Amino acid sequence: MHTIYPLAVPKGRQLCCEVCEAPAERVCTACTVTYYCGPVHQKADWASIHEKICQLLIPLRTTMPFYNSEEERQHGLQQLQKRQASPIYTRVYSHLPQKHLIELCYTVAQKYLFEGKHEDAVPAALHSLRFRMNVHGLSSVELVPAYLLLAEASLEYLSQARWTVLKSADCSNATHSLLHRNLGLLYMAKENHEEARYHLANDIYFASCAFGTEDIRTSGGYFHLASVFHGLKNMELADTLYTKVSEIWHTYLNGYYQTLLQAHTQQTDLLGKQFVNDTDLDEAQEAEAIRILTSILSFRESTSSKAPQKTVLVLKTLSILYYLMLECSKAKEYATRALSLAEEHLSVQEQSDIQELLNIISTEEEEPIT
């Protein structure tokens, strides 16, 4: 992390902290365009998102000064270009416009939230919100996803998101889904089960309209609604919804796994190129998948004697997920557990499928992709 020094603010100009918008007293010496009220918020911002976008902020926040001559203008332009050509800036994302920074910050904030690191999510979510404001305006419905991220960490933003949606005549089903999901989670935390069920049911409806009933983006609504029923001790409904979520994720991940198997079998890389496993998920979605599936696994293992095949499905799905994420040790662990349980309760064919998965994981663990 770069050091920060007291900021000399020109008279008549007020600079604000990147995190809390209080009067700034310090500046990041790496980019010199980001300000803080003190070292606490500078460190928080750096750990959350600033380290990833520090140099990318320079061209967005640097304005060309007025020059008296063409010679001075050319010299100033050369200095700015030299500054932007630093190794840090050119190494990652140097070509991305501001709209891509929106998604980068949004994904980072989402990942923190799925991992339960709410404080770390705030600076990244604030950056996503500010970039959205710059691109779309102060009252655009495009601000709502960022407000909802912030709402999970700081509830004061949730009312702003709801009000923006209510005012908008052009709000997508996906945004409605996000809003209702966050409201559902809020009421779950307050143990207001009736309101939680109402909003999560609306989340599922709008997500289904946007993506379809069997899409992984809809599965989050099913999962949270199942958790509500689980908390109410309605195990039958919780079981049904957890099963649906497991099947959605298994179908999605198994599709990528089967495609990979087919590619290996057909030996399509005639030039000897190594295949690269992939989930086609961003980091936030991978974190969400891990959180959802491990939570369902805990539920299944507490009732495994009644439905061992459902526990095997979750174990196998987690194994495929980690295999596609190139984390072979965890993939092997879950596949081994799935096979052990399958040998006691499932058919020979189902055991064979899991054994094949375990063999592939073991082979790749011994000869990792380089």
From TrEMBL:
Entry annotated with the keyword Electron transport: no
Molecular function terms, GO-annotated: zinc ion binding
Domain MYND-type intervals: 17-54
Alphabetical list of InterPro entries matching this protein: TPR-like_helical_dom_sf, Zinc_finger_MYND_domain, Znf_MYND
The organism's place on the tree of life at top rank: Eukaryota
Alphabetical UniProt keywords: Metal-binding, Zinc, Zinc-finger
The name this protein goes by in its record: MYND-type domain-containing protein
